[in-house]
Amino acid sequence: MHATHPPQCSVCKKALTPWQILAEQKNHTTANKSTNALKPQPYHCCGSFECSNILAKVSTMSTPQFASYLSFHSQNIIARETNAKREAERLAAQRREEDEENQTTYQHYLQNNENLNRLSHPLLVIPSSSAPLIPLEEDRKKNFTELLQNLIAQASEDGFTYSDEHKINEKKCQDNNAYLAASTALSSINNQACTLCKGGCCTQGYDHAYLTAATLYRFMQSENGHSPAMVMEEYLGRLPEKSVDGSCLFHTQSGCALTREMRSDVCNGYLCDNLKNFNQQFSGHTNEKNGRSGAGEPQENINKSATRDSCPSNKGVVVKGAIIKGAVVISRALDNWRNQNHSGNNQIIKTVVIEPSEPGSEKT
Ligand code: SF4
Ligand code: SF4
Ligand SMILES: [Zn+2]
To answer: pTM of the prediction?
Structure first.
């Protein structure tokens, strides 16, 4: 006896779900009733936009033409999906391997430092920005100047109002910073981690630095008030001579060349996944007497940016009532975004302990 297989989509060859089969039968019955033509249904469709569009061409071509059109697109879709699946498996394997290496390195680090343990110093894995500084090209300055002029013009229009997108970013920024505002210890750990990372999430700031008309409007309205000409001067005056190769034009080796007030909400509010998870996990687990408000930290140089996620994964141990004294930070070679697709060598470049009351003390 042969097992009956569910029908497959004629394009992508995915098996149809019972719901898709029912929906197809219903459509078929309705079509037959309306045309009075009880023809068998030759093609099945999974219902995706792409497959539906391809099958919709059946009525516009001769049978042999359509057969070859269908075969061409079907092969392309199947090849693309096979590649995507392989890539997802490669990423998952790479992540598992890195997770294991992180844990082994962490374990080793704790064994060699008897005053540290999993409860007092959980693991935090961060990316890094390790590209060299290069002179800022005239083309990039020109692009930025044009963008700035455009944004200032928008921000200066009568009746300028914040867009919904701006409000969403502002809310994200507030949410992410709420943990830091509530804990000077956590805030200090974040500052030190970002300083160590050197802006691994700034690498997609390119020539726009995530600036929007809303950022400029807010800057114009700020305490001392800034005329459009002053805004232009302030931003252009902060363009560095050299910035990190392939990164945001304000990204220097000592951090962001803009003040926090001049940065977008995206920049001020972004935290890579691991730092965000760390804050969520250990918020309420710090001894605020040990903390300090980022004293001595280069507050202007906190490197936070961008909109997307993903740093190497982080695993901390949270025990009710336990107080963390710091973190063991493993810094990996790739930046925040290249970490997502593991494009390149992502070796561990540093293992460091950071504590709110002490600057990061490098061990290995
Ligand atoms: S938030 Fe950005 S700068 Fe800070 S550790 Fe994550 S990637 Fe690095
Ligand atoms: S924080 Fe500064 S360096 Fe980083 S993306 Fe934003 S503007 Fe650029
Ligand atoms: Zn399909």
So the answer is: 0.76
